[in-house]
Design a protein that fits this description.
The complex is a heterodimer of chains A (356) and B (1018). Chain A is α+β, with helices and mostly antiparallel strands. Chain A has eight helices and 16 strands. Chain B has seven domains: 105 residues, Glutaredoxin; 210 residues, 3-Layer(aba) Sandwich (Rossmann fold), CATH 3.40.50.11540; 89 residues, Ubiquitin-like (UB roll); 99 residues, de novo design (two linked rop proteins) (Up-down Bundle), CATH 1.20.1440; 122 residues, Alpha-helical ferredoxin (Fumarate Reductase Iron-sulfur Protein, Chain B, domain 2), CATH 1.10.1060.10; 164 residues, FAD/NAD(P)-binding domain, CATH 3.50.50; 153 residues, FAD/NAD(P)-binding domain (3-Layer(bba) Sandwich), CATH 3.50.50. Chain B has 41 helices and 32 strands. In chain B, the strands form eight sheets. A five-stranded mixed sheet of chain B has the order 9-10-8-7-11, sandwiched between helices. Chain B has a five-stranded mixed sheet with strand order 13-12-16-14-15. Chain B has a five-stranded parallel sheet with strand order 19-18-17-20-32, with helices on both faces. The chains are: A alpha+beta (356), B alpha/beta (1018).
């Protein structure tokens, strides 16, 4: 059995596994430590510094997200020193951006907003000065307002380490540092794949989904777990629904396999078909040759197909029938389809559109 | 081997290359060929010699004669004189900046003599591009010993024993670092050399790489053996092309000789390395950022742990050492750790190289044992501060460090002491600052650097340094607010505490250290919009005006002289100064110390120009001002402070009566300063203007004698007390009360009161007079005594440069034949027949620095000697005589016999109706200081009166508009300050006629034209 490491957090004696970071142990034990840059599954960068804690004997405050526990460590997450540091850091971030919650898409779902409230900050001690970057609206999927960016680097790690698209990184340095594709290009002019991972991980309103702009506040949204219809991988995702309409699609790290919360451009943004007027919602039958297709019930349609297939099979044999299924069906559906063709129709003439 | 009769070692460091050593070398080669000396004399281009400010430098061996500031044109003469005729060419030798003594050889120049060279032992001696020369100086012997005789553990132990600590700045024990990396499992490990020297003002590492590249390679091979590494990198900034080129040559040579690469010295040990060029980001000097950069990524630090010893470059165990640390290793291993630890302090062993730069005479590289005092480095090795300016502080550790101020000149420089004083050792940049540096501006400069160099990864550093900088910029621009200092103090520890890497963790240090030592400067900027160093230009029109205690509009009157509009110029003088013709003669002209022209050649002769105006323009007429106020005001003391206050109050409509104890008004101007400096009629004219306004001056009335304090209190609504400081301080030596021992001001007062009797010989000092002291009144007393026919010796306990008296006064005294004995202090006054017969003195030597930044004189035991004297004048300082103020009257007098002021006030005493100013508040100060105090008191008294009566604040009457011409010369040519014509010959010594004759019109216009008009906004 793995040896447990005893440590003390805020006076509570808890046990940690070797190699665990202070933050993880605290969270496991229900002790809240705020974070901004921390994102599970990516490199522990220790950049934002709001997760600092007081460790007895340490030379300075310690970033809990990237400090491994050691036996007998005595940690305090709630000292004045810690809070003073957190306040200053959050004030600095607040004052360095255009954090205008009135119009922000992330209002109500913003880590910085939550932190300001949690630290009970009334107003920053510094004048608000943001860089006045132009908002990026040159593509239809992702909107970037870097005036709201807190340079936590989550998008960069999501892009490089989760999706491994390697599009985003920092450019420039110091307070002029900026996140984006190479040569400061807009996404549309870069190698960006528009997976939307960056928007999903952004803790503030800097990278958001354009389609859902003004389509519903976080508290109005109902999330419905579903399986992506675009391919057979079966990615799990949340449809964000407001007033019965899908406004956006978000990943969910809790869903684990197969996609672990990541999505691709299709599953993420290809949702306009759902409410498209051209979308077929009921079966159509052409009742007489040269006539119009007319709406029918599923029973009518299935009955007609069964009747016709039976006739064909009887007349020309089962191999005169072939089945072609869709890559947008799930794996299970495709399985059932081939089973149907083989066992019910009695032919091996089965194929699939995804032969690219 | 070929033998040469002489070797010429030309410095080929970057500094000397920049100052032209390559051309000098070219000229030398050509000249030797021309003279057919190439076979006899060898030229060697060495690495940095260290005395960078004096480059190009050449040392001629075997004599060891060092030539400096050589130009290619000097070469034919130099070859002719030294190498052919065997005569030293004096004009290219070193001249000691204070004594002007010429010193021919390196060993005797204090800059070199006081250093102890270990890291820099080969500097200026070997050709860095020849491995044989390094080997001839014991090079690679340490490595050979490490590879053939020692185990890895032995090496680590030896380094531990030496106590060597990381010279990059943090001071982590090098042996411990190696021990951790050695213990870390892994077959691939790296030895890295940090040559990313980026501190402003630091050039130690560059110099080592340029002058002795093999020492670094040797150190790296030894480190590799110690930790079990076979690969290394030198991370060197690309801005060091010469260092990189010499390192590459060194690497190639070492590989050729089997001292690097595979199977070193046939021991089977492999170690190879390459140079990785950094792109110049300061943060890449941080170890994790440096490694990230070598990995080809954006140079940003990463959190530790894991520490590099466990997971460094490419996640492999790595050791990163600074250039200087590694350069120590070869000799350390060869001679042993104990040898290394034989110098230094308890916890900081060995030597440290400093890049001494800034406001110091000897700019260059200095290697001294740890624990050498700051004062030794700055003054003894560094030769002190140029142009007689005062030392203010030294910045240690560059933008990550802090200032060590004057009061800590005795501090032994080692890791602990430096940290205790709020700086860090850093990599060894030592920037010396004089009184013309502004602490706030320095903090701003370094913060600007840090925020610019912040990588932007972590919030405290990225945003915190930006905001701290904004606050500092605001303060330097006069936009500071109350609370700014406190906000900085609040932010600084958090940024230090919460930042990810060393850059952010140290960036607030310069701010904290300047607040710690120079808080008053911050407050002055914020509250009074004053920058006493006259650096923060947003706060003033011109440095001279800003420096003048009464902010005289100097640029305006100077430009009016140039336009020959003397009457207007006089009006400008009188706007702020009721005594311009006095100040034109006896002002201490602080304005000139900050004159921008002084940075180019010499300051403008502002004082002389002021006098020129008052000598040559008719004085504007003064009209009486009617009394419009009911309040009666008394002024005690008719010196410059009292008379200025009286004049200002009269101008505001008050009835003012001045009480003066002595028979005539003028205070020190009348009773201490002799007529040869300030003719009586000049003073009288200016005082007449004050009485012309309606001010009544009652002489021969001492408060407490002719007029009781109670009566004064009862008869006047407000009282301004400016009685001056007219009592000499006692020397505290035996025999001080013997007749014939006088105080300086007492003697001057007596002389000025009974000039006739003294001149006629009815009163006399005797034929031999000693004057004790080094201030202006000591010089005055001496010059008066001389004029009375005495043989005068001034005895001063420090050196000439420490004398508080004005330089021109000292020169004048010497010119007149007064002897000055320095480093002498009185011990006892000898008497014979109840009269002074002599003075016994002790010789002094200079010891530690005192809080004023001067070396404290310490008596040399057994050095006592006696001088026969007829009279002694003790002029070592004055104190006010405030015995007229009754105890318990509400006006409080402090332990220095000066008035205490009410908290927050610049003139009100502890009794609200009594104000005070001048020497009686500050102790002995200047005329201009007293005038400023008078202005201040008048403003404060008037404001208090109006406030009490619920009246609106006083509005100055509109000034007459005087248009100031603006003539700016496109090309300023260097030209020294105009000389003041003086009386010469026997007349001067024997009479009290004014010595300084005044500028001619031509002199004045020429001098005025030197003004750079730095006040002009174009």
């Amino acid at each position: 059995m793995e040896k447990k490491i005893p440590i003390t957090i805020d006076g509570r004696e808890v046990e940690a596994a070797a190699g665990q970071m202070i933050l993880e142990v605290a969270r496991e034990n229900g002790i809240f430590i705020p974070t901004l840059c921390h994102y599970p599954g990516t490199t522990k960068v220790g950049a934002c510094r709001v997760c600092v804690v007081d460790v007895e004997g340490a030379r300075s405050l310690v970033a809990s997200c990237c400090m491994p526990v050691s036996p007998g460590m005595i940690i305090r997450t709630d000292t004045k020193k810690v809070r003073d540091a957190q306040r200053l850091i959050v004030e600095l971030l607040w004052a360095s951006g255009d954090h205008n919650c009135l119009t922000c898409e992330q209002n109500g779902n913003c880590d910085l907003q939550n932190l300001v409230y949690w630290l009970e900050l009334e107003t920053p001690r510094f004048s608000i000065q943001f860089p006045k970057y132009k908002q990026e609206t040159t593509n239809t999927m992702i909107s970037r307002d870097l005036n709201k960016c807190i340079l936590c680097g989550r998008c960069i790690r999501a892009c490089n380490e989760i999706q491994v698209n390697e599009v985003l990184d920092f450019s420039k340095r110091g307070s002029r540092a900026k996140v984006g594709p190479a040569f400061d290009a807009d996404y549309i002019d870069s190698e960006c794949f528009f997976c939307g991972e960056c928007a999903d991980v952004c803790p503030v309103g800097a990278i958001t989904f354009r389609q859902s702009r003004f389509k519903g506040r976080p508290w109005e949204i109902q999330k419905v777990k579903t399986t992506c219809t675009y391919c057979g991988v079966g990615c799990q995702m949340d449809l964000n629904i407001n007033n019965g309409k899908i406004v956006k699609v978000t990943g969910n790290r809790d869903y684990s396999q197969p996609n672990g919360g990541s999505l691709c451009i299709k599953g993420r943004f290809g949702l306009d078909f759902v409410n498209h007027p051209d979308r077929l919602k009921k079966p159509l039958i052409r009742k007489e040759k040269g006539g119009e297709l007319t709406e029918a019930s599923w029973d009518e349609a299935l009955e007609l197909i069964a009747k016709k297939f039976s006739e064909i099979k009887k007349k020309d044999g089962a191999d005169s029938i072939a089945g072609l299924s869709s890559a947008r069906c799930t794996n299970e559906e495709n399985y059932l389809f081939q089973k149907f063709m083989r066992a019910v129709v009695g032919t091996n003439n089965v194929d699939h559109c995804a032969r690219l | 081997m070929k033998v040469f009769r002489s070797h010429l070692l030309i410095c080929g460091g970057t500094g000397c290359h920049a100052s032209g050593s390559l051309n000098v070398k070219k000229a030398l080669v050509a000249e030797l060929i021309k003279r057919k000396l190439s076979e006899e004399i060898k030229i060697v281009e060495t690495g940095c010699n260290g005395f960078c400010a004096m480059g190009p430098i050449m040392v001629v061996y075997p004599e060891g004669v060092i030539y400096m500031l050589i130009k290619a044109e000097d070469i034919p003469e130099l070859v002719e004189e030294h190498l052919i005729k065997g005569r030293i060419l004096e004009r290219l030798l070193y001249r000691e900046p204070t004594t002007e003594e010429i010193i021919p050889t390196m060993q005797e120049i204090p800059f070199f003599a006081l250093q102890e060279l270990r890291v820099l032992r080969n500097r200026g001696l070997i050709d860095p591009e020849k491995i044989e020369e390094y080997i001839a100086r014991d090079g690679y012997q340490g490595m050979a010993k490490a590879l053939t005789e020692m185990t890895a553990a032995d090496i680590v132990q030896e380094v531990l024993t030496s106590g060597l600590r990381g010279r990059g700045g943090a001071g982590f024990p090098t042996g411990l670092k190696w021990k951790f990396a050695a213990a870390s499992p892994g077959d691939v490990k790296y030895v890295l050399c940090n040559a990313d020297e980026g501190d402003p003002g630091a050039f130690m590492d560059r110099s080592v790489l340029e002058a002795d590249p093999h020492s670094v390679l040797e150190g790296m091979v030894i480190a590799a053996k110690a930790i079990g590494s076979h690969n290394g990198y030198i991370y060197c900034r690309a801005e060091y092309p010469l260092a990189i080129s010499r390192m590459n040559i060194a690497i190639a040579q070492a590989k050729d000789m089997g001292l690097l690469g595979r199977d070193i010295l046939g021991t089977g040990f492999d170690f190879d390395l390459e140079i990785y060029q950094g792109a110049g980001a300061f943060v890449c000097g941080e170890e994790t950022a440096l490694m990230t950069s070598i990995e080809g990524k954006r140079g940003m630090p990463r959190p530790r742990p894991p520490f590099p010893a466990i997971a460094g470059l490419w996640q492999r165990p790595s050791v990163l050492n600074n250039v200087e640390t590694l350069a120590n290793i070869g000799q350390l291993i060869l001679r042993g750790g104990a040898w290394y630890a034989s110098v230094g302090t308890e916890r900081s062993k060995g030597t440290k190289v400093f890049a001494l730069t800034g406001d110091v005479n000897n700019v260059g590289l200095v290697e001294v044992p740890m624990g050498t005092t700051l004062g030794t480095i700055v003054f003894d090795i560094g030769g002190g501060i140029p142009k007689g300016k005062k030392f203010k502080a030294a910045q240690l550790g560059g933008p990550s460090g802090g200032m060590i101020p004057m009061q800590h000149l005795n501090a032994p420089i080692d890791y602990e002491k430096v940290a205790e004083l709020g700086a860090i050792m850093g990599s060894g940049g030592m920037i010396v600052m004089n009184e013309d540096s502004c602490a706030v501006d320095m903090a701003r400069f370094f913060m600007d650097f840090c925020q610019d160099e912040s990588c932007g990864k972590c919030t405290p550093c990225r945003e915190g340094t930006k905001r701290m900088l904004q606050i500092l910029v605001n303060i330097t621009q006069g936009k500071g607010k109350e609370g700014d200092i406190e906000l900085l103090e609040e932010m600084a520890p958090i940024i230090k505490d919460a930042s990810l890497c060393g850059l952010g963790q140290t960036a607030p240090n310069p701010v904290l250290s300047t607040i710690r030592y120079f808080r008053k400067e911050y407050e002055d900027h914020i509250r009074n919009h004053r920058c006493n160093a006259a650096v923060c230009t947003a706060l003033f029109k011109s440095p001279c005006q800003h420096t003048c205690p009464i902010e005289m509009d100097i640029p305006s009157y100077i430009s009016l002289i140039r336009a020959n509009r003397m009457e207007d110029a006089y009006k400008v003088l009188l706007r702020t100064n009721p005594f311009p013709s006095v100040c034109g003669r006896v002002c201490d002209h602080k304005c000139q110390t900050k004159c921008r022209r002084g940075k180019m050649d010499e300051p403008i002769a502002i004082k002389f120009l002021k006098r020129f105006i008052t000598d040559n323009a008719p004085r504007p007429k003064t009209e009486p001002v009617p009394v419009t106020r009911n309040e009666k005001i008394a002024v005690v003391g008719a010196g410059p402070a009292g008379l200025t206050a009286a004049r200002d109050l009269a101008l505001r409509g008050y009835k003012v009566t001045v009480f003066e104890e002595l028979p005539e008004p003028g205070g020190m101007l009348r009773w201490a300063i002799p007529a040869y400096r300030l003719p009586r009629n000049i003073l009288a004219n200016e005082i007449a203007d004050v009485t012309a306004l309606g001010v009544e001056i009652k002489c021969n009335i001492r408060v407490g004698r002719e007029l009781s304090f109670t009566k004064l209190n009862k008869n006047y609504d407000y009282v301004y007390m400016a009685p001056g400081a007219h009592k000499s301080q006692k020397m505290g030596v035996e025999g001080e009360d013997i007749p014939g021992v006088r105080g300086g001001v007492e003697f001057l007062r007596d002389f000025n009161a009974h000039e006739d009797a003294w001149v006629k010989g009815e009163k006399t000092l005797g034929s031999k007079v000693a004057v004790i002291g080094g201030g202006n009144s000591a010089i005055d007393a001496a010059r008066v005594a001389l004029r009375l026919g005495a043989d005068v010796t001034i005895l001063y306990r420090r050196e000439r440069k420490d004398m508080p008296a004005a330089d021109e006064e000292i020169i004048a005294a010497e010119d007149e034949g007064i002897k000055i004995e320095y480093l002498v202090a009185p011990l006892k006054i000898e008497a014979k027949d109840g009269k002074v017969s002599g003075i016994t003195c002790e010789r002094m030597k200079l010891g530690e620095f005192d809080r004023s930044g001067r070396k404290k004189p310490v008596a040399i035991p057994g050095s006592a000697f006696t001088l026969a004297m007829d009279a002694i004048v003790a002029s070592i300082g004055q104190v006010p005589d405030l015995t007229f103020v009754p105890k318990d009257c509400g006006v409080s007098v402090n332990k220095w016999d000066c008035f205490d002021l009410a908290k927050g006030s610049k003139s009100q005493t502890t009794d609200a109706r009594f104000y005070a100013g001048g020497d009686a508040v500050t102790g002995p100060d200047t005329v201009i200081g007293a005038i400023a105090a008078g202005h201040q008191a008048a403003r404060d008294m008037d404001a208090a009166i109006r406030l009490a009566g619920g009246e609106p604040a006083y509005e100055e009457p509109a000034e007459e508009k005087i248009i100031i011409p603006l003539i700016i010369d496109e090309e300023g040519e260097e030209a020294p300050q105009g000389k003041m014509p003086e009386l010469h010959g026997p007349d001067r010594r024997a009479s009290f006629v004014e010595v300084e004759l005044g500028f001619s019109m031509e002199d004045a216009v020429k001098e005025a034209a030197r003004c750079l008009r730095c006040d002009a906004e174009v």
